Amino acid sequence: MMRCPNCNSRDIGKIGSNQFYCWECFVEFNVVGDQVKLFQVEEDGSLSSFDDLFSEIPQVGTV
Length: 63
What we know:
- There is one protein chain.
- By secondary structure, this protein is mainly beta.
- It has strands at residues 12-14, 19-22, 27-32, 35-41, 47-49.
- A hairpin with a 2-residue loop joins strand 3 (27-32) and strand 4 (35-41).
- The termini are close together.
């Protein structure tokens, strides 16, 4: 079972073909191959990439 790469919660919903939402920490993430991209959902519904905050991208196998 998949876990959130941000908080390690299992309370995840699938919102697209490779898109997921964590109900525990309220982040959205995409899984492309072995890479995960994290996004913060802003108040207006737009997404802000965590890549802007962190230089290292988490890998699926390390979650």
